[in-house]
Amino acid sequence: MRLSWWKILCIFLLLFISIAGFLGGVPAKPILNETIRNLYFHVAMWFGMMIFFIVSVVNSVRYLRTGKIRYDAYSVEYANTGILFGILGLVTGMIWANFTWGKAWSNDPKQIGAAIALLIYFAYLVLRNSMVDLDKRARISAVYNIFAFAMLFPTIWIIPRLVESLHPGGMGNPALNTDDIDSRMRLLFWPVAVPAWTLLGVWITTLRIRLKLLEDQKLNHA
Amino acid sequence: MKNIISLFKKDLLLEFRQQYTFYGILLYVASTIFVLYLAMGQPEDLVWNGLFWMIQLFVCVNAVAKSFLQESRGRLLYFYSIAGARDFILSKLLFNSLLMALLSLVTWALFSLLLGNPVINGLRFIGISILGGLGLSLVFTFLSAIAAKAQQNAALMAILGFPLIVTQLLLMMKLANTAFSQVIQDSLLMIVVLLIVMDVLVITLSIILFPFLWKD
Q1: Which terminal residue of chain B, N or C, has fewer Cβ atoms less than 10 Å from its own Cβ?
Q2: Which residues from A are below 8 Å from B205, CB to CB?
Q3: Per the structure, how many domains does chain B have?
Q4: Closest partner residue to A140 among B162, B205, B213, by Cβ?
Q5: How far is B177 from chain A, CA to nearest CA, in Å?
Q6: What ipTM was predicted for this assembly?
Q7: What is the pLDDT along chain A (222 residues), one digit of tens a residue?
Q8: Alpha-carbon distances, residue B160 vs A46, A151, B155 (angstroms)
């Protein structure tokens, strides 16, 4: 078995975050208690999701500029992985909220924003599947991907400022407050947790892209 | 510019000749509001506001949906050969935003007739509903172009559009609530500017992206 360096790094970082994330020292805060460890998993999911959605849009633009069908495959597979990470982020957040806020869903602006983002990308998938013609599907879904992405960002920026939030990170900020992370946790979060999960997502996506391109090739030769 | 105006005139003329869509939508608005009236009587201010914007949303989906879905393939090809893609989308955006402005006023009139009128500052409310109608019609015009290209009906448009429009809708409701009292909030101007910026964003995106939709 041959693994490139970043895959080995990914496995190492994932093992490290799974062990250190549960055993490492964390500040003891009331209400939060040990749920604070969710930072390594839940927050890292959102970073992964945003990165994959951005990569997906970039590939949509590249598709429209060049017309090469492989960029369409990149675009849809990164969107798929983004959705997977989004769902995992939502679920980890809801489990956390169940312990700290008392219920899983409380219409918090962060929850609303995440739900909207997922709905938009589900609509993207529905739109794709409604068309059969390959070129047309690629072109129209690329257009929607770019349009939806441009509309999603105002949502993520604006809604947290309209509705009050209980979410850590305070009012106005879409995700987290970078200044008030405990220094031990920051040391694990930025260099380990975020790259570990993002690399895992990239790994999943590259495998899926290879599969998709092979399937397309088989279809062309059939 | 000349192309845009002549295309716009064509849409307007078609509307006057057929008169089917306008009256159809009018009836749609009237019957929806009538059903609402039978179901809830005269609701409180906040509920009134929420209902008003939901009705605006559905009216917009129905009014705008036909703008691309009505054009046959051959006719689209003809327009493409005499005018550019950009002129075409701009004329559609212009036509639909005017149609929506008119429908906003109709909706408000029917609302105040049947569901009561909590609006104190009428002028401000007219401005807000026209601005809101503009935002709705711009987004849904572009989405109807996408749905038409995918050979789908208005249902797909709703799926594509509702998650995208949530932010604007929330902003508009917040804005419209201010018309129910004499108090002026500081954040009012800020929200208006935000909505206008979003409208400009949608227009720019339509101009950039529509040519790609059109190519076949």
Answers
A1: N
A2: 146-147, 150
A3: 1
A4: B213
A5: 14
A6: 0.90
A7: 678 999 999 999 999 999 998 888 888 777 777 888 888 999 999 999 999 999 999 999 999 999 999 999 999 999 999 999 999 999 999 999 998 888 999 888 888 888 999 999 999 999 999 988 888 999 999 999 999 999 888 777 777 777 667 777 654 444 566 566 777 888 888 888 999 999 999 999 999 999 999 998 898 887
A8: 23, 12, 9
